[in-house]
Amino acid sequence: MRLHVADHPLVAHKLSVLRDAKTPSPTFRQLVDELVTLLAYEATRDVRTHEVEVVTPVATTTGVKLADPNPIVVPILRAGLGMLEGMTRLVPTAEVGFLGLQRDEETLEAITYANRLPDDLTGRQCFLLDPMLATGNTLVASIDYLLQRGARDVTAVCLIAAPEGLKVVEEFVGDRADVQIVVAAVDERLNEKAYIVPGLGDAGDRLYGIV
Ligand SMILES: O=P(O)(O)OC[C@H]1O[C@H](OP(=O)(O)OP(=O)(O)O)[C@H](O)[C@@H]1O
Ligand SMILES: O=c1cc[nH]c(=O)[nH]1
Ligand SMILES: [Mg+2]
C-alpha cells in the first residue's frame, strides 16, 4: 500500500478551517469540495492515458487523452458524497458507482446498506472517496467489494486518516492489489470512541446534519 500525504499550504489552510468546530455546514461543504479538487490532482497522477494527434491552429502535435476504460469513482455514502462533485469536475468522463456504509458506533463494524457497482471491475482504475479513515473498517470493506469484482488498482482519497486505520488497511491489502491512499493529513490517534484526534468530528453530520 502506498500513502501520499498532500503537502501544500492551501491544503493545510483549508483543512484547518474545516477542523474548526465553529465552521458552519455550508462553508464545510464548500471546503470539502475545494480540498477534493486539490487531492484529486495528486490522486490521478497515474491515471492511464493514450497518445492522440492534436491539430492546433499552428501545427500538428502529440497530446494525451484518458485511456479506455474510463476510471470509476465510488463515493462512500454519506460523507463521501460531499467529495463526488470535486472529483468528477477533474475527471468528467469517469463512471460513478455507489457504496453506502455506516459504522456501528458500538461495535465499530461497517454495515453496508447500498452497493451499486459494475459487476466487472477488471482492469479499471478505481477511486474511492471518503473524508474519514478512522478504524479502517469502512475502507477495508469498500476495497474488498472492489477486489471481489476484479479491481486491482484502487486509490482512496480521504481528508484525514488515523495511523491505526492506515495499519488495518495496509494489513488487509498486503500484496493483493495496488492500493494508494491520498490524504490531506494523518492525525495523531483515535479516541476511546474511535473518533480521529484532533480530526474534525463526524464528517457526515457536519456535511448533512445529524440523522
Ligand atoms: O474507519 P471507520 O472507523 O470505519 O470510520 C470511518 C467512516 O465513518 C464515517 O462514516 P459514518 O459511518 O459516520 O457514516 P456517514 O457518512 O453516513 O456519517 C466516515 O465517513 C467513514 O465512512
Ligand atoms: O472521527 C471520525 C471517525 C469516524 N467518522 C467520522 O466522521 N469522524
Ligand atoms: Mg457519520
TrEMBL record:
Pathway: Pyrimidine metabolism; UMP biosynthesis via salvage pathway; UMP from uracil: step 1/1. Its cofactor is Mg(2+). It catalyses: UMP + diphosphate = 5-phospho-alpha-D-ribose 1-diphosphate + uracil. Allosterically activated by GTP. This is Uracil phosphoribosyltransferase. Belongs to the UPRTase family. Keywords: Allosteric enzyme, Glycosyltransferase, GTP-binding, Magnesium, Nucleotide-binding, Transferase. Uracil binds at residues 196, 201-203. Its EC number is 2.4.2.9. The keyword Nuclease does not apply. One of its GO terms (biological process) is uracil salvage. It is an enzyme of class 2 (transferase). It comes from the Bacteria. The keyword Glycosyltransferase applies. Residues 5-209 form the Phosphoribosyltransferase domain. Binds 1 Mg(2+) ion per subunit. The magnesium is bound as Mg-PRPP.
